[in-house]
């Protein structure tokens, strides 16, 4: 049964570990049920934080503007985790993002862990919602600032301790750490035709793409094409070619 661990949570710009970005990391280190160390850092994303994400998390572009170098933040967080198993609510969501960032900066994040969401699904099957907010409400756990990484990490640690108190003896296997396994999807570069089409669209509509076409992935190029077509419309075809608008 895991009694010492690092419980962590991320705030991100979206749900995809392949294309979205971390904007905040929060964690607590717990030994024998007591918090002994805390971690809280902003991460500045490459793309601006959207108003929707700011509305959900309360994190604005101004708040992350002075965040330190991302590679140093990731290194510091991995050092904070050390050899401890990790705990999280819907843990694989946060693990995937962290694993991808670690790999990007040539670091390792192979961990064992426990997911309070999986535990709750087993021991509280009749509870309508297994969200962190609802589980905290169910057990009277106060989360003073939901959707902020550190506060959600602390609330999750309290939730884990509560679940272990009530079910640790009868469901001991649920409180044993297991290896976390995730294989990152292979990133496919944009096709030659996608890059040519983007150049044609930019020339036709007289717009700047503001991206290095050679570094785009296939999905990024597809989204960019869709955005241009939505905002500016299609090109009118004349005699089998794409004419430049005058």
Low-confidence stretches: 238-246
Structure annotation, total helices? 9
Number of DSSP strands? 6
Specify the CATH homologous superfamily of the largest domain: Ribonuclease H-like superfamily/Ribonuclease H
User: What proportion of the residues is helical, as a percent range?
Assistant: 40-55%
In round numbers, the mean pLDDT is 90
Task: Tell me about this structure.
One of its GO terms (molecular function) is 3'-5' exonuclease activity. InterPro entries: DnaQ, Ribonucl_H, RNaseH-like_sf, RNaseH_sf. The protein has helices spanning 51-57, 61-64, 70-81, 91-104, 116-123, 132-139, 149-167, 192-205, 218-232, and strands spanning 5-12, 22-31, 34-42, 86-88, 112-115, 178-179. By secondary structure, it is α/β, with parallel strands linked by helices. It folds into two domains: 5-179, Ribonuclease H-like superfamily/Ribonuclease H (Nucleotidyltransferase, domain 5); 186-246, no CATH class. It has a six-stranded mixed β-sheet, sandwiched between helices. Strand 4, helix 4 and strand 5 (112-115) form a beta-alpha-beta unit. Residues 238-246 have low confidence and may be disordered.
């Amino acid at each position: 049964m895991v009694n010492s661990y690092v419980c962590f949570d991320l705030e991100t710009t979206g749900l995809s570990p392949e294309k979205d970005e971390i904007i905040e990391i929060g964690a607590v280190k717990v030994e024998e049920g007591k918090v002994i160390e805390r971690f809280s850092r902003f991460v500045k994303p490459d793309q601006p934080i959207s108003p929707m994400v700011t509305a959900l998390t309360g994190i604005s572009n101004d708040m992350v503007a002075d965040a330190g170098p991302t590679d140093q933040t990731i290194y510091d967080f991995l050092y904070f985790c050390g050899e401890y198993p990790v705990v999280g609510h819907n843990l694989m969501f946060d693990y995937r993002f962290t694993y991808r960032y670690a790999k990007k900066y040539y670091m390792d994040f192979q961990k064992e862990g426990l997911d309070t969401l999986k535990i709750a699904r087993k021991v509280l099957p009749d509870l309508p919602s297994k969200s962190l907010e609802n589980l905290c409400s169910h057990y009277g756990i106060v989360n003073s600032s939901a959707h902020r990484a550190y506060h959600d990490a602390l609330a999750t640690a309290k939730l884990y301790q509560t679940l272990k108190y009530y079910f640790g003896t009868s469901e001991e296997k649920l409180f044993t750490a297991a290896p976390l396994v995730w294989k990152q999807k292979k990133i496919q570069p944009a096709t030659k035709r996608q890059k040519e089409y983007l150049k044609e669209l930019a020339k036709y509509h007289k717009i700047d793409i503001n991206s290095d076409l050679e570094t785009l992935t296939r999905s990024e190029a597809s989204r960019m094409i869709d955005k241009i077509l939505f905002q500016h419309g299609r090109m009118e075809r004349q005699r089998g070619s794409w004419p430049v608008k005058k």
